Amino acid sequence: MEYAVKKTDNKVYIELKGDIDIVNASNFKNTCMEIIAEEKKDVVFDCSHLDFIDSTALGSMVIVNKYADSLGLNVKLVNAKERIKKLFSITALDTVITIE
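Above: the chain sequence. Below: its structure as tokens.
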């Protein structure tokens, strides 16, 4: 997994690339939580170049979302491929995390 961070006045955009799976999900979670703690802004994950996520990655997304929520912040996924949207839908995580 690779990522790039872009900041605006009120949001942090994290562009994800590659796969998030059991190998790197913990690093992904820790990195996101550090960014949220430092920036204290809503997070938008740009998933246009995200190819794959597994259940470990979903769990990391839930933890990141809960952490952001505890700070009064929002997490949103944009540009997700249909197979990734479907995974969020099947697990009902699309009711917890906004997907556009």
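The longest strand covers residues 42-53.
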